Structures are given as C-alpha cells and as structure tokens.
C-alpha cells in the first residue's frame, strides 16, 4: 500500500497537483472524537501558500471538505475522507517541459517508475501539494492526541546556513506562532527573511531544518524490534517531499560523543523517573521514555529555480538546458513546519492506538 | 507486526540475548536462488565479536543453522528460517541490575512497555545480538541482489570526532576489507584505533558514522507517496540498536545549500541519463534514479560503560549510581558495518520484489 | 486497515448510506491501463436499484466520478479515487428506530462496536450501499484482468428454495445478461420471480446463492500457506453484506465423497495438463490450477421486512416489537451478482500483481 | 506475507513435511501470559497421528520446543518461536513420483508456482504436517482467550455421508473428548468408524464436516467493512489443507429461508440483550453479537489413496496412472478438529487485540 501509512491509525492519500483534488482517507480513528471542519481547516491554513512574500503565488483557497466518517460532530469509527479541490492550476508550462526533466525534481524518476503514464502536470503526485493531504489527516491526529494531553510543536531552526539559537520551550511556544518563518529566534528570523528574499531575487532557493517536538507522550509506546518510534517517524517524515535527513535527540552529534557524555542519567523527580539530559530524544530501544520526543528534519532547497540548469531531452537523448518558470517557493521550510507536526501526529496516533490508549470520553 | 519488516520480502526476527537463540524467518524470497550455509555464515563472521581488541569478549561461535526453506541448494519459495544458538551467556550480572536501569539502554523503557515481563538478561531483545538476525536475513538479501548485479558496501566514515577523508569507490572497495574498522582511510583507521583504545581504558565508549552505498540499483524502484526508498531504508536502519540519525546524499548538508548548488544536473552518458553530481543520494521523489544510493547512519556510543553513572532504583524510587560490568564493545561501529549493509539489502530486496524484477535463472 | 483489502492491488472503501457519498480508493493499479468513466459506470448500472419490480424504490442515479489516478484516459499508477454522491436518502425513519435494533441487521452490533457514535441512518456503513464502492473498484479490477484475458462471470443459482439447473458455460454467457435475476435457467427464473413477488407481498424477503466463475486464470497464482486463493476470495466475499457461506468447487459436497470420486484426475489436452473434473474449483493447495475458479456464495434474505418482529428497546432494556418501513429489496441476490464478480476480480488482481504479471501494453 | 496471518496477534509458519522441522512464530502475544510447554504440548497431542486405527502410521513424537518469547513461565511480549523436529520422514517414494502429480494434491500447482524448486518430498509445505504449526500457535491463542473466559470447542458433525445428530452444548462438552472422532453423537461415531475402516480397506478415503463454536466472545469485536469476523475466520480456515467450504450460523441454509424465519429476534435476558435464535452464528455486520460464534468447515477426503488414479507424466507430457503408497489418513477429519479450534483461536486473539482487550493480570 504505497500511499498508506500506519497500521491501526492508517492514512491513505490521493490526488495530484493539477488533477481534481488532493485528499486523504483516515481508517482507524476511533469513534467519538469531537471533530469539526474548523479543526482541520485551522491546520490547513497554516500551510497555505500565497500569504507571504517568500511563498508561491499559486492561490488555492484550500477549503477542506469532509466526505465521510463524521456524524453529529463526532467521528463514527468509519473511514474519514477529506479533500480540497484544485482550482488555480496552470498546466501550460508542463507540456513544454515534458521531455526535459527538471533537475532535483522527480520528473525523470516518476517517468521511469510509471512508464510515462504519470501525470506530469505540476509533478502529479510528486508535488508539495500532496502535503495538504498530510495536513488534513494530521489535523485529526493532532485533535486525537490533544484529548490525551499530547502536544506537538514544530519550528524552523535553520534556513540556508543561518541557524536559530536554542530557545526554551516557553519561548518556542510564544515566538513561533508570531514568526512568519515559524522560528523561535526573533533575530534569526529577520536574517533568514533577508536571505530568502536575496535568493528569490537571484532566481534561486534555499533549504533548512525543522525541529519537531512531541510533549507529554506516554512512556512505553513503540513496537520494536522493527517498528521503532524513530523508524516510523523517520519513514513518515521522509514521505514529505524534499526531506533528506532525519535525526533524533543528539542525532548525528552522538557520533562525536563518549558514552559517559551521551547516556542520559536517570533521576527521580516528583515521584517520576526522568532523565537529566535528553540526548536520546525521548526514545530508548525504539520505545518512548516519557521525555519529549525531539526530531530534526533536513529540507533541501526547492528544486524549482528560475536559473538556467543543465538537463537532457529524454526523447532525443541529448543534452540541453532548462529554465523553470512558474510559481514556486524560494524556501519551502516555513510551510513545511505544520507538515512535520502533522506527520509526527499521524505516527504517534498509530502508536497510541497500538498501545490501546483511548481518551476517557471515547471509551 | 512489530518484529517484521518488508511487504513482499519480509523478515521476522526472534530471540533474546540470553535466551536459547536469535533467528529470523524470511518470507517472500523467490524460489530458485542458489543458497548455501556458507553464503550466510560469511556475513555472520563479519559481525562476530571477540576477534578484535576493541570488541566484546563474549565469545559466541555464531554458527548459522538453516531450518527451512531450502532444498537441493536452492531456495524453495517457502519461509527460510535461520538461527544461531546462544551458548556463552552470563546472566549473573543482570539479576543485580534488575531495578537499576542502565542509562542509555532500553532497560527502563522495555520494563514500561512490557509490564515488567520482559527478559531483562542481557537486555532481552534489546541487544546488539538481535543484529545477528538482521545479518542472517541480510545475507540472503545480498545474495538475491547480487544475482541482479546490485552490490552493497558499507564503511566506517567517523569514529568519535575523527572523520575519515572521502575516498574513491575503488579505494573503498580495496581498503575497507583490510581495515579492522572497515574504514577506507588507512591513516584515519590508525587514529580511530587509538581513540577506541583510549576510551576503552577510560571505561568509556565512543560512537561513529557508517556510510552505506548501493551500486547498480535499477532506476524506477520505490513506492511513494508513503513507501519511499529513503523512508523504508531509514525505518530499517533505525531498527539497528544505537542509531540516532539517517541521511541520504548531501543529507543535513542540503539545508545549507542553494537550489542551484543542490540540484543534480542531468546529462547523457553512453546512451544513459546520469546526474553530474549525486546530492540526492540516488533517490528523487522517493524513487531510485539509477545513481548510487548513499545513506549515512549515526551510531551513538555503546551505553554500556564501566564508569559510574547516575541512575535510579525503580523499585524504591530513589536515586542511586551504577557501574556496568560485563563484556561490551568500546565502539560498536565496526561491527555495525555489515549490519548496515544487511538492512539496506533487505529493504532493496523488498523494492526489487515490488517491481517484479527477478534474475533470469529464477524466472 | 479494516476498510482495505489486498496487499498490492489495494481497495479502501469509505462512505455511509445517508452520508454525502460512498466511494473507494484503489492503490496499486499499475500505470497504463486504459480506463474511462464508462468502464466503471457500466458495472455500476448493473447493481442499480429501482429498475426492477423486486428491487428497492430508492432511486439513486449513482453516476460515478473519478477524482484521481487517471490522466489522458489511462491509469497513472497513483491512487484511483472514485465515488458516487448520495442524493435520495430519507433518514426520517431511522431516528425513530434508533433504540430498537432491527433483527438481522447490524444496528446493535454497530452500536456496541462504535460506542453509539456510529451513523445509524440507513445502517451507516452497514448498508448494501457500500457495495457500490466494491463495484467501482471491481470495475477497474475487471478491466485489468480483461487485458490479461481473464473473465469473471457470476450468476444466480438459487433463490429461496428454488434451484436453477446446471447450465453449460455457453448457456450461462448467453442467458444471464438477459435474465432480470441474472440466472442462466430461463424456466427457473420465472418461478423465482414469482417467489420474490410472493414474499414481497407478504412483507417478507428471501435469500439465495450466487455462483462466481473466473475463466482463463493463469495456473500458479496464490500465496499459501496463509494467503490461499480460497481464503482471500472468501474473505472478500464475506465482506459483502448478507453473505453467510462460501464454498469452492464441490464445496460442502466434498464431505460426502470418497477420495477416488473427489480427486480430479489429470490428463494432457492440446499440450496442456488439465483435470477431467473440477471438484477442486480450480484451486489446489491454495494455488490456481488453470481450471476455472468456481465459488458459490450464500446470501441470507434481506433482514428488512415489513412484518412485525420481536426486538428490544436498548435504552429501556425492555422487550418490544418493530415493523421496518422504508424502501427495501425483497431479494438482494440479483443485485449481488455484479458485486460477487467485482469482489472476485479485486482479489484476483491482487494475486496477479503478486505474481508480477502485467499485460504487454502496460510493461 | 504469505505465511503470516493476523494484524496484531500475528502467526508466521515455517517448515516442510520432510525438512528439519515445522514451526511458528507468534508476534504480538502480550507480555505476562502464563505459558508452559505443557499448554502447547497438550493441544499438539490431540492432533498426533498414529494413535488410532484410522490414522497415518507416520510416528512423530512431536515434542514442542519453545525457542524464544517466554521468561520465568510467562510470555515476554517478544516473538514466541516454537517448533517440532521432523524425525520419521521417509522420502523414498516421492523421488519416484516427482513427475507424476498426485490428483487432489498440490504437487502440480506447487511446481508451477515455485518453478520446480519446491521441496516435493511429502508435499513440502503442502502437507497436513504444517497444521502442527497452526496448533502450536493456536495453543497459545487458546490460552490467551481462556484468560478472558473465551472457550473454543470443535467437533466432527459429518464423515462421508454420515451426519451426527445435533447435540446440546453440554452433551458436546461431555461426549467429544471421549470420542475417537471428536463427535458428540455416540451412535454416529460408531457408524463413522465403520465407514472409515471400510474405505481404508478399499484403499480409499472420506471427507467430513467440523463445526467450531466459540463461547463467551465479547460483543463488538470485528473490523468491517473488509475485516469481518466471518471473513477473517474463513481465511484462516481455508488455510487448513483440504478445506473447501466455510459457513456461519445457518450457513448455506439461509438461502432457503425467508427473512421472517432467518432474522434472529432480540429479547432481554438477565439484563442482557440476546437473540432467541442464532442463525447469524454470533456475527452481524461482521461484528460479534455476544452469542456463540458457530462455524462449519467442509473437509475433502484425503487425496492420498492407494487406488490407481489417472494422472500425467509432466516431463514427457503423456497420460499415465499412479498408485500412491505411503502412510496416510483414510480420514483426516478427526485430526482436523483441534486445528479448527486453533485457527479460530488465532483469529479471535487478533480481534481481541484489535479491541484493546487484555486480561486483568496482563495489564
């Protein structure tokens, strides 16, 4: 099931960039979760393009519709189908580029994978737009987790070479919603905005890093050996277009540490066992420890740039160049913040379901 | 299925560190693959402990037995069951540590997950020893891939803060098998050996980074949106104990690049389309491009150290300290090299099966 | 994934009887299959209510819409989403019956399963209407199988106690499309029509048996031990509401036979190995033999009858009676014929995909 | 995963008739279930061949070994691996029959499926012996269900044309354990024994019907639309070699009933809602109702008969005849009774796990 994720809380996505819609089916959301259209729309609005200078000018309203699975303001336990219709798609450019694959995009690999039958307009399903499906499903997942007290917050920690300074959880909660880049470091935000503006003017793009944090996750979630919390989160995060790296806790930094530095010492605190550091990112042996889950996700720069690039004409098997026109993000990272949250939420819902945990109201 | 991985080429592992055995069942290996015990033993020997100064002194012979699934020197298409018996297990230390979880280990999370019924001796299934199962299964996967011309090579690229210099593929192939650390940089190997010796003498440990490369992988493998090549590889790699980060191609480095730097330009070469760089690590849109797949995996330092550490007595809910005795690796990274290869092989076998690709001899 | 079926050719259904729509997502249909709306509508029209005297008077047009997964008249390899909107739903009766479960329906079990949050209008997802989803998906499956020369034909072989006489394959192909009951025995059809009319006038209903036949299925399909062709077909057929028995070949009749009668003798015929009888129903060891697959499916009488029935008031926990009003089929069997075909087609597509078989045009 | 069944309580089988062993891995048995070797051996002994006149003379001791997943007399939550070694296998006959497929067996279909690489000795995995794996796993499942008060009883209700008369549950519980055929009708047992003896002397075999009953199953289990209780039970039961039909409750009899006869009327009884009849077999809408689950399973006569049969030489593509020698059951039905119980138990464990139900002691 290549377009599904999760074992008990399962999300199946569908749709293409320039087709009729993009959507998702959630199978396995327990009955009795209060759910309104607004719950979903609120998250969708956080990934909307077109609201900021650094973003694509494609103007989709992205009004979510719920087609099944709710009744009297609650989930029914049957599949929840949601979609947004595509309206503002301009496919004219893609006909011209059909045989000249855009570097960094999936044009060529999709053609090879699907024998040339893939919908190449806007990349078909290989489009940032598919993340609208992730967000619809993730919005429901976040709602379910919230009823259990679990909170997920993502924020931008690097754009290009610019890194945000570490901030306390309180500062993150306060600053991120106000930042156009969802970054907790106010000073860095300003510099990042300038950098994005600069590369946009150069017809270029820039990548970055998003950190996702899950708070109040119960200890003891996880299905190792194979279905570890890290592994499932990583699989979900790599489904987000442009992700090339995922790490947890101290991440790649662990390679440079000694065991005595990296091991998180245990201590008792208010009758609970905690760790004094969190190099493990809240996960040991693939199982949650009760400490915050901390994941970091590397996003490559948007491959759509207006600078001339070397490519091939795959029909004539000759070398050529390409200049990509159209409406694109100079930096996808800020719009990806909510997507990271949603993918983390989807995976954690699955683990919560595996553990048989249900909010009181839904029992 | 928490102890299984793969959809068509499925590996299920079983066993515990101090139980009777560790083993694996492969379901979905096509009939007709020539397979001998030596094919599997050869890979197992590469992860054997006890052969080098930096390694644990637990001395398991790890002689693989094949219990089902082969006949007349070929696979039959039915489940292949393999195991190694445990013989040299000393459980005495674990009884004492039962209520004082070792920092950095899964002792506490396993107890929480399994309600205290987990086999805590040697960590139970939360043991480096479970990777013997991965290697048995991976050996079969590598054999299957080899019949298709696909080759997988992993090597150590960092130990502690020491980084190996980049080497050509030819140098990697030549130097790695000779290096006790499976590192292609001869000079770095020597320094790494000294570092390991040093931390061992301190009663400490050190982590590192392994790079896995898959060569001659056909273009067009992958099952996006959700089952991307990156995502499935990452999930498999995070199942290896101690892994805290996984990246592909330019990895976390993409965050600092501009699109014009990061996009891999296309060119024709000998009638094939290639990319002039490989920042994508051979994967675009979750689909293989035909370029080498390059993954990097961060391993944390072995949590078992003989230095005194802060922990708790979980029974009495009091703070205490712990000194871990026993036979442990000061650096797990060299023994993990073959494990990385094997996990990559298992995942690629699954994608190869999904694509319906079979060697001529097996059709 | 409770609302999905299939491993490689996966169908996920959604929707409720009185919700906005019923639909299906197919994940795993290979790219390149020619597919038009008419291909799907044609099958949908065969299950339409309201065209015959014996059928419900709920008048849905059931115009299929394809929301994703096709481009330029072919499948793209990405999820195919299809739906029909609900328009003619009258929910007024259900509010009254909320606490008095209809005998033979899933009213009570659904309430217990979903904690009372289920959409009880029209049975919610426990409705014959969900089979519209099966037909949409099955229509695509039948198209795919047709490109491989595989043909699936179902027909009514019993209504109430009336049994159709056995007919040759040629007669089945000729007579079934002309029969309002999809029955190959013309004389029996007339008697069955009278019986249905009689029970309808009594405010009662009647069951029956449908036989499904799959022709030209390649030998060697099947994934035993667990994923047998019989097992997967049975699972799919039991998903059709009202099915209480499934058998293959000689079916329950095998229990009365001796081995020497039941074993299908082999013989060579035109350079192929065939069996002289087909008591196995085309399946041995869970694997297709190349002979026709023959399945028989028992349907219970529609539980919705207008006769007074004993039930309970589940709120007051008291005994009471119920008379079900509304628009219902006196005999669901004829409308189920296309559904049986479609479920068989979905399952066989999955096995065909598992075997890596693809039509030439799609390679 | 063709050799696995179940989503949360998953059983994977392995082994061949004349290989080293047959076995099973259970993944998903919760931690804390008291489990001894005797719990498993007890069920294994009920399917042992060689103890009765009507049975094969192959004399396997079938002593179960548990290789992983238990510790201190309880399950640990990790995979439980069990096996029995093969010792008394005589493969000499099979070499001769290699190219002359036995009618009614999977010899030919297995060869086609696995390209001739299948282990043809004793049928390889297409052997009644694989049911030893089902029983090992089922024994654990039964133990888990027992802790929840769920009881599963199967019994023989027909052998050849001879049908047992219906007996009360009390009589079934009393008579079945004493009957060499596991039949509750004492008089019928005697006649059945004579019939089996007669067909054995004729070099023939005979089939039959087994009924499985599950008592005290909680209402509300089931994962429709696709994963119905009937569908999952049927899939599991069709995995038992020789099964050609499965029905629930009134089964195929529903086809001859009117709705007013077939609908099970509701009534209150001791503060619970019950049905006054059980034509539904305890399942409505694919969900358990709390009434006993009743399944009936048709077994074909053992295909191994010593009468001469028509077959082909598949190498020379010529017609020939075959007389099967060796040790075979004249009637497999009595030995299948425990297998039916075990398969039902495995499936119900999975549904119990899906519902998040756990015995108090294991929470």
Could you explain how this protein is built, in words?
The structure is a homotetramer of 363-residue chains. Chain A has a five-stranded antiparallel sheet with strand order 1-2-3-7-4, covered by helices on one side. The two termini of chain A are 30 Å apart. Chain A has helices at residues 37-46, 92-97, 107-113, 131-147, 169-175, 186-201, 229-238, 259-262, 333-354; strands spanning 4-5, 10-15, 21-27, 65-68, 70-71, 74-75, 80-85, 151-159, 162-163, 208-215, 243-248, 266-269, 272-275, 283-284, 287-288, 293-299, 309-313, 318-322. Helices cover 27% and strands 23% of the residues of chain A. Chain A has one domain (4-362): 4-Layer Sandwich (Chorismate synthase, AroC fold), CATH 3.60.150. Chain A is globular and about 70 Å long. Chains in contact: A-B, A-C, A-D, B-C, B-D, C-D. Chains B and D meet through strand 2, strand 3, strand 6 and strand 7 of B and strand 2, strand 3, strand 6 and strand 7 of D.
């Amino acid at each position: 099931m290549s377009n599904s994720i999760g074992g008990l809380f399962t999300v199946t996505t569908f749709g293409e960039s320039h087709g009729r819609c993009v959507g998702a089916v959630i199978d396995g959301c327990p009955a009795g979760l209060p759910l309104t259209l607004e719950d979903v729309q609120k998250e969708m609005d956080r990934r909307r393009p077109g609201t900021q200078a650094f973003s694509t000018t494609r103007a989709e309203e992205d009004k979510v519709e719920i087609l099944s699975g709710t009744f009297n303001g609650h989930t029914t336990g049957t599949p929840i189908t949601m979609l947004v219709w595509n309206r503002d798609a301009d496919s004219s450019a893609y006909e011209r580029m059909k045989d000249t694959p855009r570097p960094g995009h999936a044009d060529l690999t999709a053609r090879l994978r699907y024998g040339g039958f893939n919908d190449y307009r806007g990349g078909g399903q290989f489009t940032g737009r598919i993340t609208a499906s992730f967000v619809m499903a993730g919005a429901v997942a976040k709602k379910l987790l919230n009823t259990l007290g679990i909170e997920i917050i993502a924020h931008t920690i690097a754009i290009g070479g610019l890194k945000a300074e570490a901030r306390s959880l309180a500062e993150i909660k306060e600053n991120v919603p106000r930042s156009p880049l969802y970054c907790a470091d106010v000073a860095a935000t300003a510099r990042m905005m300038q950098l994005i503006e600069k590369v946009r003017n150069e017809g270029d793009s820039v990548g970055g890093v998003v950190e996702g944090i899950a708070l109040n996750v119960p200890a003891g979630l996880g299905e190792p050996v194979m279905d570890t919390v890290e592994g499932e989160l990583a699989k979900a995060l790599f489904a987000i277009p442009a992700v090339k790296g995922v790490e947890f806790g101290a991440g790649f930094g662990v390679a440079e540490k000694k065991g005595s530095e990296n091991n998180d010492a245990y201590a008792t605190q208010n009758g609970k066992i905690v760790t004094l550091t969190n190099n493990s990112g809240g996960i040991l042996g693939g199982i949650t420890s009760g400490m915050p889950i901390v994941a970091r996700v590397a996003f490559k720069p948007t491959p759509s740039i207006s600078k001339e690039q070397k490519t091939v004409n795959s029909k004539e098997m000759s070398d050529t160049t390409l200049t990509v026109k159209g409406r694109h993000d100079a930096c996808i990272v800020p719009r990806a913040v909510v997507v990271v949250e949603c993918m983390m939420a989807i995976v954690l819902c699955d683990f919560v379901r595996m553990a048989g945990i249900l909010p009181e109201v839904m029992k």
